[in-house]
Amino acid sequence: MAKYKRVLLKISGESLMGKGEFGHDPETLNRICSEIKEVHKKGVEICLVVGGGNIFRGIAGAAAGMERSSADYMGMLATVINALALQNIFDKMGVTSRVLSAIPMATVCEPYIRRRAIRHMEKKRIVIFAAGTGNPFFTTDTAAALRSVEMNCDALLKGTQVHGVYTADPKLDPKAKHFKEVTYKKVLTSELKVMDAAAIALMRENKIPIIIFRIHDKGNFGQVIEGKGKFTVIK
Protein backbone atom coordinates (compact mmCIF):
# COMPACT_ATOMS: atom_id res chain seq x y z
CA MET A 1 0.00 0.00 0.00
CA ALA A 2 1.49 3.33 -1.10
CA LYS A 3 2.21 5.79 1.72
CA TYR A 4 1.95 8.82 -0.55
CA LYS A 5 -0.68 10.06 -2.99
CA ARG A 6 1.49 12.50 -4.96
CA VAL A 7 5.29 12.47 -5.15
CA LEU A 8 8.11 14.11 -7.03
CA LEU A 9 10.98 11.86 -8.08
CA LYS A 10 14.34 13.54 -8.70
CA ILE A 11 16.57 11.56 -11.06
CA SER A 12 20.15 12.61 -11.69
CA GLY A 13 21.43 12.65 -15.25
CA GLU A 14 24.25 10.32 -14.17
CA SER A 15 21.73 7.64 -13.18
CA LEU A 16 20.66 7.36 -16.84
CA MET A 17 24.19 6.46 -18.01
CA GLY A 18 24.15 2.94 -16.56
CA LYS A 19 27.74 1.74 -16.73
CA GLY A 20 28.62 4.18 -19.49
CA GLU A 21 30.63 7.36 -19.12
CA PHE A 22 28.08 9.68 -20.74
CA GLY A 23 24.78 9.69 -22.60
CA HIS A 24 21.96 7.18 -22.12
CA ASP A 25 21.94 3.46 -21.40
CA PRO A 26 18.73 2.04 -22.98
CA GLU A 27 18.52 -0.82 -20.47
CA THR A 28 18.76 1.57 -17.49
CA LEU A 29 16.23 3.97 -19.02
CA ASN A 30 13.77 1.13 -19.57
CA ARG A 31 14.20 -0.23 -16.04
CA ILE A 32 13.70 3.14 -14.36
CA CYS A 33 10.64 3.98 -16.49
CA SER A 34 9.20 0.50 -15.91
CA GLU A 35 9.45 0.94 -12.13
CA ILE A 36 7.84 4.38 -12.35
CA LYS A 37 5.05 2.86 -14.45
CA GLU A 38 4.39 0.15 -11.82
CA VAL A 39 4.11 2.72 -9.02
CA HIS A 40 1.91 4.93 -11.21
CA LYS A 41 -0.43 1.98 -11.87
CA LYS A 42 -1.03 1.77 -8.11
CA GLY A 43 -2.65 5.20 -8.22
CA VAL A 44 0.30 7.34 -7.13
CA GLU A 45 0.51 10.68 -8.95
CA ILE A 46 4.10 11.15 -10.11
CA CYS A 47 6.09 14.10 -11.40
CA LEU A 48 9.78 13.98 -12.27
CA VAL A 49 12.71 16.36 -12.30
CA VAL A 50 15.69 15.08 -14.24
CA GLY A 51 19.26 16.38 -14.16
CA GLY A 52 21.61 16.77 -17.11
CA GLY A 53 24.97 15.61 -15.75
CA ASN A 54 25.21 12.71 -18.21
CA ILE A 55 25.39 15.26 -21.05
CA PHE A 56 26.70 18.53 -19.59
CA ARG A 57 27.30 19.93 -16.13
CA GLY A 58 27.14 23.70 -15.74
CA ILE A 59 29.54 23.75 -12.78
CA ALA A 60 32.10 21.68 -14.70
CA GLY A 61 31.77 24.01 -17.68
CA ALA A 62 32.29 27.04 -15.44
CA ALA A 63 35.32 25.39 -13.84
CA ALA A 64 36.78 24.92 -17.31
CA GLY A 65 36.63 28.67 -17.88
CA MET A 66 33.18 29.08 -19.39
CA GLU A 67 30.99 31.94 -18.18
CA ARG A 68 28.78 30.46 -15.43
CA SER A 69 25.41 31.65 -16.74
CA SER A 70 26.08 30.26 -20.22
CA ALA A 71 27.31 26.97 -18.74
CA ASP A 72 24.18 26.65 -16.60
CA TYR A 73 21.89 27.32 -19.56
CA MET A 74 23.69 24.57 -21.48
CA GLY A 75 23.10 22.26 -18.52
CA MET A 76 19.39 23.16 -18.57
CA LEU A 77 19.18 22.24 -22.26
CA ALA A 78 20.76 18.88 -21.40
CA THR A 79 17.92 18.19 -18.96
CA VAL A 80 15.41 18.75 -21.78
CA ILE A 81 17.17 16.05 -23.83
CA ASN A 82 16.88 13.67 -20.86
CA ALA A 83 13.23 14.56 -20.29
CA LEU A 84 12.40 13.80 -23.95
CA ALA A 85 14.28 10.49 -23.68
CA LEU A 86 12.16 9.49 -20.65
CA GLN A 87 8.96 10.58 -22.40
CA ASN A 88 9.87 8.45 -25.41
CA ILE A 89 10.22 5.36 -23.20
CA PHE A 90 6.90 6.09 -21.45
CA ASP A 91 5.22 6.40 -24.87
CA LYS A 92 6.50 2.95 -25.84
CA MET A 93 5.17 1.56 -22.54
CA GLY A 94 1.73 3.06 -23.12
CA VAL A 95 2.09 5.56 -20.28
CA THR A 96 0.84 9.11 -20.94
CA SER A 97 3.40 11.73 -19.98
CA ARG A 98 4.06 15.41 -20.60
CA VAL A 99 7.34 17.35 -20.66
CA LEU A 100 7.09 20.88 -19.26
CA SER A 101 10.14 23.08 -19.68
CA ALA A 102 11.03 26.14 -17.61
CA ILE A 103 12.68 27.48 -20.80
CA PRO A 104 9.92 27.71 -23.45
CA MET A 105 10.53 25.35 -26.40
CA ALA A 106 7.14 25.14 -28.08
CA THR A 107 8.39 22.85 -30.86
CA VAL A 108 9.38 19.98 -28.58
CA CYS A 109 7.49 20.39 -25.29
CA GLU A 110 5.06 22.50 -23.28
CA PRO A 111 6.11 25.59 -21.32
CA TYR A 112 5.97 25.23 -17.54
CA ILE A 113 2.69 26.61 -16.22
CA ARG A 114 1.84 25.54 -12.69
CA ARG A 115 -1.92 25.13 -13.16
CA ARG A 116 -1.39 23.18 -16.37
CA ALA A 117 1.06 20.84 -14.63
CA ILE A 118 -1.38 20.20 -11.79
CA ARG A 119 -4.16 19.51 -14.31
CA HIS A 120 -1.97 16.94 -16.10
CA MET A 121 -1.36 15.18 -12.78
CA GLU A 122 -5.06 15.21 -11.93
CA LYS A 123 -5.63 13.50 -15.28
CA LYS A 124 -3.17 10.79 -14.14
CA ARG A 125 -0.40 11.79 -16.53
CA ILE A 126 3.25 11.61 -15.52
CA VAL A 127 4.71 15.11 -15.65
CA ILE A 128 8.41 15.56 -16.44
CA PHE A 129 9.84 18.94 -15.47
CA ALA A 130 12.80 20.03 -17.59
CA ALA A 131 15.27 22.96 -17.69
CA GLY A 132 15.58 23.21 -13.90
CA THR A 133 14.15 26.45 -12.55
CA GLY A 134 14.88 28.24 -15.82
CA ASN A 135 17.52 30.35 -14.05
CA PRO A 136 21.31 30.00 -13.84
CA PHE A 137 23.02 29.44 -10.47
CA PHE A 138 20.27 27.05 -9.27
CA THR A 139 20.72 23.28 -9.28
CA THR A 140 18.16 20.70 -10.37
CA ASP A 141 17.91 19.76 -6.66
CA THR A 142 16.54 23.24 -6.01
CA ALA A 143 14.24 22.83 -9.02
CA ALA A 144 12.97 19.54 -7.56
CA ALA A 145 12.28 21.19 -4.20
CA LEU A 146 10.52 24.12 -5.87
CA ARG A 147 8.32 21.93 -8.09
CA SER A 148 7.42 19.58 -5.23
CA VAL A 149 6.14 22.58 -3.26
CA GLU A 150 4.29 24.01 -6.27
CA MET A 151 2.66 20.63 -7.02
CA ASN A 152 1.64 20.12 -3.37
CA CYS A 153 3.54 16.82 -3.23
CA ASP A 154 3.46 14.59 -0.15
CA ALA A 155 7.17 13.80 -0.49
CA LEU A 156 10.25 14.40 -2.61
CA LEU A 157 12.15 11.22 -3.47
CA LYS A 158 15.73 11.53 -4.66
CA GLY A 159 17.18 8.51 -6.44
CA THR A 160 20.95 8.37 -5.85
CA GLN A 161 23.95 6.04 -5.99
CA VAL A 162 23.64 5.11 -2.29
CA HIS A 163 20.96 3.88 0.15
CA GLY A 164 20.40 7.21 1.85
CA VAL A 165 22.31 9.57 4.13
CA TYR A 166 25.48 8.42 5.89
CA THR A 167 27.86 10.01 8.37
CA ALA A 168 30.50 9.87 5.60
CA ASP A 169 30.79 8.69 2.01
CA PRO A 170 30.10 4.91 2.27
CA LYS A 171 32.21 4.30 -0.85
CA LEU A 172 35.25 5.78 0.89
CA ASP A 173 34.52 4.86 4.50
CA PRO A 174 33.18 1.31 5.09
CA LYS A 175 32.40 2.26 8.72
CA ALA A 176 30.08 5.11 7.69
CA LYS A 177 26.82 4.93 9.64
CA HIS A 178 23.48 4.96 7.80
CA PHE A 179 20.70 7.24 9.05
CA LYS A 180 17.16 5.84 8.89
CA GLU A 181 15.85 9.30 9.73
CA VAL A 182 17.55 12.69 10.03
CA THR A 183 16.36 16.27 10.53
CA TYR A 184 16.69 19.10 8.01
CA LYS A 185 18.75 20.97 10.61
CA LYS A 186 21.21 18.09 11.00
CA VAL A 187 21.71 17.91 7.23
CA LEU A 188 22.37 21.66 7.05
CA THR A 189 24.56 22.07 10.15
CA SER A 190 26.61 18.92 9.51
CA GLU A 191 26.92 19.81 5.82
CA LEU A 192 25.85 16.32 4.78
CA LYS A 193 26.17 16.26 0.99
CA VAL A 194 22.61 15.23 0.17
CA MET A 195 21.06 18.20 -1.62
CA ASP A 196 22.14 21.81 -1.78
CA ALA A 197 21.23 24.07 1.15
CA ALA A 198 18.64 26.07 -0.80
CA ALA A 199 16.67 22.90 -1.59
CA ILE A 200 16.82 21.64 2.02
CA ALA A 201 15.73 25.03 3.40
CA LEU A 202 12.77 25.19 1.00
CA MET A 203 11.62 21.70 1.99
CA ARG A 204 11.98 22.48 5.70
CA GLU A 205 9.95 25.66 5.32
CA ASN A 206 7.11 23.75 3.61
CA LYS A 207 7.37 20.62 5.80
CA ILE A 208 7.74 18.19 2.88
CA PRO A 209 9.86 15.12 3.70
CA ILE A 210 12.81 14.20 1.49
CA ILE A 211 13.47 10.50 0.95
CA ILE A 212 16.93 9.49 -0.25
CA PHE A 213 17.24 6.00 -1.76
CA ARG A 214 19.37 4.02 -4.19
CA ILE A 215 17.76 4.08 -7.63
CA HIS A 216 19.98 1.36 -9.12
CA ASP A 217 18.40 -1.49 -7.13
CA LYS A 218 15.60 -3.12 -9.11
CA GLY A 219 12.16 -2.46 -7.60
CA ASN A 220 13.51 -0.07 -4.99
CA PHE A 221 11.31 2.88 -5.99
CA GLY A 222 8.17 0.79 -5.46
CA GLN A 223 9.43 -0.48 -2.11
CA VAL A 224 10.30 2.98 -0.83
CA ILE A 225 6.85 4.29 -1.80
CA GLU A 226 5.43 1.59 0.50
CA GLY A 227 7.86 2.45 3.31
CA LYS A 228 9.97 -0.68 2.80
CA GLY A 229 13.62 -1.26 2.02
CA LYS A 230 16.67 0.82 2.94
CA PHE A 231 16.41 4.60 2.68
CA THR A 232 16.71 7.81 4.70
CA VAL A 233 13.87 10.19 5.51
CA ILE A 234 14.80 13.84 6.06
CA LYS A 235 12.09 15.70 7.96
Structural notes for this entry:
The strands form two sheets. Strands 4-3-5-2-1-6-10-11-9 form a nine-stranded mixed sheet, with helices on both faces. Strand 1, helix 1 and strand 2 form a beta-alpha-beta unit. The longest helix has 25 residues, at 68-92. Helix 1 (26-41) crosses helix 3 (68-92) and helix 5 (140-150) runs parallel beside helix 7 (197-206). The chain is globular, with a radius of gyration of 17 Å. The protein has helices spanning 26-41, 58-63, 68-92, 114-122, 140-150, 184-189, 197-206, 220-225, and strands spanning 6-11, 45-50, 97-101, 110-111, 126-130, 155-160, 165-166, 178-179, 181-182, 210-214, 231-234. The chain has a single domain (6-234), classed as Carbamate kinase. With 235 residues, it is of the alpha/beta class.
Low-confidence stretches: none
Percentage of residues in DSSP E strands: 15-25%
Domain unit count? 1
Largest sheet strand order: 4-3-5-2-1-6-10-11-9
Helix content: 25-40%
Give me the number of helical elements: 8
What value does the average pLDDT take? 93
| Major sheet description | 9 strands, mixed
Reported CATH architecture: 3-Layer(aba) Sandwich
CATH topology tier name? Carbamate kinase
Radius of gyration: 17 Å
Order of helices and strands: EHEHHEEHEHEEEEHHEHE
User: What is the count of β-strands?
Assistant: 11
C-alpha termini separation: 21 Å
